[in-house]
Design goal:
Layout (H helix, E strand, L loop, with lengths): L1 E11 L5 E11 L3 E5 L6 H9 L6 E6 L2 E2 L10 E4 L11 H11 L8 H14 L15 H13 L5 E5 L7 H18 L2 E6 L2 H7 L2 E6 L2 E6 L1 H6 L4 H22 L10
Parallel strand pairs: 3-8, 3-9, 6-7, 7-8
Antiparallel strand pairs: 1-2, 1-4, 4-5, 9-10
Helix pairs in contact: 2-4
The structure holds adenosine-5'-diphosphate and magnesium ion.
The site of magnesium ion has 3 residues, from helix 1.
């Protein structure tokens, strides 16, 4: 089943710059798709068009077979997590988590009991039980990012969108959160589109990686397939060569005698 479909989607900004060109891409239900490419290649633009934060210049975007080009952001049933956590500083963790649910009026409004049960579930899943009554400034960077993730998930979005969510974290925490995000996905099965410029992040998280260069989709394939059968020179150099460099560096470090004469 297809959850999200881009058909010949283009984005031209007001200054005439074409940030996304003729994008055709389908994301299957339950899939973890990573949009990968260098800075400025159009990843955020693509995600923002899907989220309804940016107008589509040409083409069509659909979610669950419904065209959403003109649907307001709030009506698309999506959850979003950004690089900047954008938590409300004066609200507790609990209030931050439930804000979106509490804003819903009328027949779609959940009961207080249901909201409480979802908070409990999210807090357990994200190890925030002991922090529910703290303010964001009392939390570590990793905990804040978990609140941002919880706030998106608590609404049970049809699709979860993440735009470089780990970029502000230090290397160790990034590593840890990467595994947590994948574990959560395996547990919940939420269709996910994740944007990053980091090849390792993409390769370890994705069911399928979609590689962009200068607004044009270059290849979409499972990580191993993209690595073994790069579609063109760009993928070869941006993805394969980069990974090979890392492996080579690691092998050099491990070579017997390497660094033996260095003072430590
Ligand atoms: N509002 C805007 N007006 C004009 N150009 C923009 C605007 N927003 C982004 N761009 C340009 O579009 C290109 C793609 O941007 P973006 O989607 O943010 O890239 P990425 O997320 O891959 O780094 C960049 O060259 C950027 O400078
Ligand atoms: Mg971006």
């Amino acid at each position: 089943m297809v959850s999200v479909k881009f058909t010949n989607v283009s984005k031209r900004y007001e200054d005439g710059f074409e940030a996304v060109k003729g994008l055709d891409l389908e994301v299957k239900t339950g899939e973890f798709l990573v949009l990968l490419g260098p800075s400025g290649c159009g990843k955020s633009t693509t995600l923002r068009m899907l989220a309804g934060l940016e107008e589509v210049t040409d083409g069509e975007i659909s979610i669950d077979d419904v065209t959403v080009n003109h649907l307001p952001a709030g009506a698309r049933g999506l959850g979003m997590v950004f690089q900047s956590y954008a938590l409300y500083p004066h609200m507790s963790v609990r209030e931050n988590l439930t804000f979106g649910l509490r804003m819903v009026k009328g027949k779609d409004r959940l009961s207080d009991a249901e909201i409480a049960s979802r908070v409990k579930e999210a807090a357990t899943m994200l190890e925030l039980e002991d922090h529910l009554y703290k303010k964001p400034k009392e939390l570590s960077g990793g905990q804040r990012q978990r609140v941002a993730l919880g706030r998106a998930l608590i609404r049970r979005p049809k699709v979860l969108l993440m735009d470089e969510p780990l970029s502000n974290l230090d290397a160790e925490l990034r590593h840890q959160m990467r595994h947590e995000i994948r574990r959560l996905h395996d547990e919940l099965g939420t269709t996910t589109i994740y944007v990053t410029h980091d090849q390792i992040e993409a390769m370890t998280l994705a069911d399928r990686v979609a590689i962009l260069d200068r607004g044009v989709l270059q290849q979409h394939a499972p990580p191993l397939e993209a690595y073994q059968q790069p579609a063109n020179e760009f993928v070869q150099s941006f993805l394969c060569r980069h990974l090979d460099d890392l492996v080579e560096t690691a092998n050099t470090l491990l070579r017997p005698g390497f660094g033996a004469n260095k003072e430590v």
